[in-house]
From TrEMBL:
Its cofactor is Mg(2+). This is GTPase HflX. Monomer. Associates with the 50S ribosomal subunit. The gene is hflX. Pfam families: GTP-bdg_M (PF16360), GTP-bdg_N (PF13167), HflX_C (PF19275), MMR_HSR1 (PF01926). One of its GO terms (cellular component) is cytoplasm. InterPro entries: EFG_III/V, G_HFLX_dom, GTP-bd, GTP-bd_M, GTPase_HflX, GTPase_HflX_N, GTPase_HflX_N_sf, HflX_C. It comes from Vibrio rumoiensis 1S-45. Belongs to the TRAFAC class OBG-HflX-like GTPase superfamily. HflX GTPase family.
Length: 435
């Protein structure tokens, strides 16, 4: 299906510094990505441009320099720290006479290596197929549209068209399977909502220490390593919090700058654990000089997957790699915990993290008494009944339904957003939330 040069483990890396901020990428992070993929870097070719070149992404002179470097070092692959168009990839491959991979393809390759579960493998395959669907070429010229003679007449379509059709069918098949997985996950989430079990989701930049923190809290023993995208498949474990009870902690895939859209789409079912969480633990590598940029990159991805409105608690991790940093809780003007400084590797500050989590989850439980007129009673009561939020109910002399509800604040906000201002109009009394 694909007429490509064989990719190897000896690579020439290409990094271009752009004056436009939107095109900026981090070279050190790129080298970590390459290392995580198991590739040996022979040389890094750098350059500066105001904007990408149409044909080669880099200029013609720099493209020739890359080709000469590949020939001199005997490299088997060229990896760009940028997103290339299919035409740019082909032009560079023709010039360098070797495989050319862009940043998106590199991340997809790492994901393919890390996938362990059946769901994870399907998600990676879906992302790869979507990425490769734009890079199909006429590789089988002996199978053209029509051939003369008995037994040699073609099927009426070129091999390229056949390849595209096969890709579309495979993508549809994977999407059907992932839809079943998404349905199963949704049933699990609804069951936890009915049982009023809060969900805490770990999010953060890749290699921030999420899996180490997850292991420290749950003793789950999930794979953790000092490399990018060590975690791919989500893991859920029960934890016990004082005054809150049983909660679910979810370890998720790490984010990165310019996370490929194909990956975001493919991992929709997995990322939904983040969307539906009651609170996010945003884990940050505090020892990283660029931690502020990493926080911003994670927030951008959260906004992209519609999880930016979920309440979050910032966890500054790896204080053992810093000087004069001790475990502590930082609070806002109202005394609400906003930042917790910990070390997952050394187990420092975990008790403070539990304290902050308990305070945040307790404060996020709301209790209201609603007065619902007869015309809305059936639908509104059904919604709260499904969420197991009704504490008490009775009718007044005018036939209005008076119900006492108790639920997570994030669930109330979602309902309010879906139903509009109607729900707020029904509130008669706001009661103190107790656990």
């Amino acid at each position: 299906m694909f007429d490509r040069y064989e990719a190897g483990e000896q690579a020439v890396l290409v990094h271009v510094n752009f004056t436009q901020e939107g095109e900026w990428e981090d070279l050190s992070e790129f080298e970590m990505l390459v290392s995580s993929a198991g590739v040996t870097s022979l040389q890094v070719v750098t350059g500066s441009r105001q904007s990408p070149h149409t044909k080669y992404y880099v200029g013609t002179g720099k493209a020739q320099e890359i080709a000469d470097t590949v020939k001199a070092l005997g490299a088997e692959i060229v990896i760009f720290n940028h997103a290339l168009s299919p035409a740019q990839e082909r032009n560079l491959e023709y010039l360098c006479q070797c495989r050319v991979l862009d940043r998106t393809g590199l991340i997809l390759d790492i994901f393919a290596q890390r996938a362990r579960t059946h769901e994870g493998k399907m998600q990676v395959e879906l992302a790869q197929l979507r990425h490769l669907s734009t890079r199909l070429i006429r590789g089988w010229t002996h199978l053209e549209r029509q051939k003369g003679g008995i037994g040699l007449r073609g099927p009426g379509e070129t091999q390229l068209e056949t390849d595209r059709r096969l890709l579309r069918e495979r993508i549809k098949a994977i999407l059907r399977r992932l839809a079943k997985v998404a349905k199963q996950r949704e049933q699990g989430r609804k069951a936890r909502q009915r049982a009023e079990i809060p969900t805490i989701s770990l999010v953060g930049y890749t290699n921030a220490g999420k899996s180490s923190l997850f292991n420290c809290i749950t003793e789950a023993g999930v794979y953790a390593a000092d490399q990018l995208f060590a975690t791919l498949d989500p893991t859920l474990r029960k934890i016990e919090l004082d005054d809150v009870g049983t909660s679910i902690l979810a370890d998720t895939v790490g984010f990165i700058r310019h996370l490929p859209h194909d990956l975001v789409a493919a991992f929709k079912a997995t990322l939904q654990e983040t969307q539906e969480a009651d609170i996010l633990l945003h884990v940050v590598d505090a020892s990283d000089d660029r931690f502020r940029e990493n926080i911003h990159a994670v927030n951008e991805v959260l906004e992209e997957i519609d999880a930016h409105e979920v309440p979050s608690l910032l966890v500054m991790n790896k204080i053992d790699c810093m000087d004069n940093q001790k475990p502590r809780i930082e609070r806002d003007d109202e005394g609400t915990p906003r930042v917790v400084w910990v070390s997952a590797m050394e187990g420092l500050g975990i008790d403070l993290l539990f304290t902050a989590l308990t305070e945040r989850l307790v404060s996020q439980i709301v209790q209201y008494q609603l007065c619902i007129p007869p015309m809305h009673q059936g639908r509104i009561k059904s919604i709260f009944f499904q969420m197991n939020a009704i504490q008490d109910e009775k009718y007044d002399d005018e036939g209005n339904l008076l119900i006492d509800i108790r639920m997570q604040q994030v669930d109330w906000l979602r309902l309010e957003k879906r139903e509009g201002a109607v729900l707020s109009d029904f509130i008669v009394t706001t009661m103190a939330a107790t656990v």
